[in-house]
Amino acid sequence: MGPASGHGGDAPIAGSLRKRSVTIAGHRTSISLEPEFWAALEAAAAARGWSVARLIVEIDRTRGQPSGGGSLSSALRVFLLAEARQKQEG
Hints:
Elements: E1 11-12, E2 18-24, E3 27-33, H1 35-48, H2 52-62, H3 72-89
Antiparallel strand pairs: 1-2, 2-3
Helix pairs in contact: 1-2, 1-3, 2-3
C-alpha cells in the first residue's frame, strides 16, 4: 500500500480534537486535529486523487525543509491554511 496506510478510524479526545493513527515510512504515529481540519485534509487529498495517508506523507516531507519544522499536526494545519489562501487568491 505504499509508505503510508490509511487511518485507523477517529477517536474523540479532549476538546474538539479527533485523533487518527497513520503509518509513515513504516512507523505508526497519531495525529490530533479538529474535525474541520480532517475534512479539509480529506478534500485536499481527494482533489489530488490521493489517500489522506499519502497527502500526510507528502506534507511530512516538508518538515525537514528550512520552512518546515514543528509538529506534524502543525504542519498539516499550515499546509491547509496555505491551500485556502491560494484558492482565495487564485
